[in-house]
């Protein structure tokens, strides 16, 4: 793997212009298809940009591995002993290849089926209604209220806490840790320390579940699989579900609301036509593509993508926004159109690592967006679009806040 160099920040695969990926991604996609770039950590990587090529990288785990090889070190990271590295990798499905990945995922799959999600629908609707009340209360006597703080962030946080068995009273701490762990402007040593704090916190919940398993995912894992799972694996699984379960959906709710506000005719359809909601969610997922790249892969052998030869042992980034804006995949990809039918997008990834929580995220959005727009039919941003604070250097794209009025 090549030596680190000083990168231009944010790197090309993380640059956005409002809702749109940087035009540089389109230029790469329409010319080379694959280009060597410098990552945020100063390491060279092969950026894959075309829809079909992204699918190839994400689905071929034999040539594109999620597992970091021995001796893999991120430039700027402090030394970490092998025991801690092993503990931090345990249970992290994103960093595992089959068959180990499949062993753990099979334990969780029954909790995220469509049938299970339908049973959760009434409770999710209750949570959404409660947060609409909270948003209204925050606006009372004020010029505006922050949609992120009072609506977009609490809904998925509450849902995943109840599902997983995490006390919602601890939300301030785990939300702070998650946001800062994923913020690449935070120095690596601090983010490593935040990860340690998170594992210690989750370790205390695992210890409690071992003693008294509840009626939640953590309790289920202990009751049904406790003998085959180590504590470190339980910590890793639960920590990943907690982080992914609120960070991604909260940013989709906030950014998706802003996108709809910028397209009033399509907003009206979501508010008034129940049949428009599910297609609208799929188009928002495609058009916004809030995860810049899938988890980086490492080539296990020499490969060729889009005519570009990639040696073994190289980092490969698969650009989800670029793949979802490929006109070989969909017509007029730069246009937001909830009537198009955007199934086949890559927002949830592809292959064995396709997002486990996708059915839950879809249901949360399908309930939350129309409920918000019906409750506040005159909802509008409190300021100018150019003043909206987008996340600029973060693993997950989104908004820092969104002041709204009605």
Automatic annotation (TrEMBL):
One Pfam family linked to the record: p450
Single GO molecular function: heme binding
Cofactor: heme
Region (Disordered): 1-21
A GO BP entry: cholesterol metabolic process
CDD domains linked: CYP105-like
Pathway assigned to this chain's UniProt record: Steroid metabolism; cholesterol degradation
Keywords tagged on the record: Cholesterol metabolism, Heme, Iron, Lipid degradation, Lipid metabolism, Metal-binding, Monooxygenase, Oxidoreductase, Steroid metabolism, Sterol metabolism
Name of the protein described by the UniProt record: Steroid C26-monooxygenase
Native source organism of the sequence: Mycolicibacterium vanbaalenii (strain DSM 7251 / JCM 13017 / BCRC 16820 / KCTC 9966 / NRRL B-24157 / PYR-1)
